[in-house]
């Protein structure tokens, strides 16, 4: 396993664990809202599974890792609606319209999503599908 892949796997696991702590801390401040806990813990589990799978060089880990960071990418806030997932690390750049709405992007998630894509696409990556499929004889 390449050193960069170990770093990505470590970031996925660390980010997820930090997200679990952050989720508990935020929920304890607001009375443990059920939907908040369900969605955040689900995202934490996706990140942990992706990190562990990435350490083990499993192909599905690339998909889970991409989902993990994609869910944290977009941030929308209006007077009636709010969508934002950040589990720990984030750097959000947002643009607003006269206090009515704000749309932002998590630059950390964007960089990580790009880096995951590059690591999956490199030559010799264990996350790429083999172009050589076995024939009917199984060889």
UniProtKB/TrEMBL annotation:
UniProt keyword list: Membrane, Transmembrane, Transmembrane helix
Top-rank taxon: Bacteria
TM region(s), chain numbering: 7-25, 31-55, 67-97, 103-122
Protein name from the UniProt record: Uncharacterized protein
Organism of provenance: Oleiagrimonas citrea
């Amino acid at each position: 396993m390449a050193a960069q892949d170990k770093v990505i796997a470590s970031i996925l696991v660390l980010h997820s664990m930090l997200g679990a702590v952050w989720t508990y801390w935020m929920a304890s401040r607001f009375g443990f809202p059920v939907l908040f806990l369900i969605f955040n813990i689900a995202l934490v589990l996706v990140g942990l599974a992706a990190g562990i799978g990435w350490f083990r060089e499993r192909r599905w880990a690339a998909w889970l890792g991409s989902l993990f960071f994609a869910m944290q990418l977009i941030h929308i806030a209006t007077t009636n609606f709010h969508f934002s997932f950040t589990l720990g690390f984030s750097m959000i750049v947002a643009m607003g319209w006269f206090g009515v709405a704000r749309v932002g992007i998590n630059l950390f998630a964007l960089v990580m999503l790009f880096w995951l894509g590059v690591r999956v696409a490199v030559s010799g990556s264990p996350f790429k599908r083999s172009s050589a499929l076995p024939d009917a004889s199984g060889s």
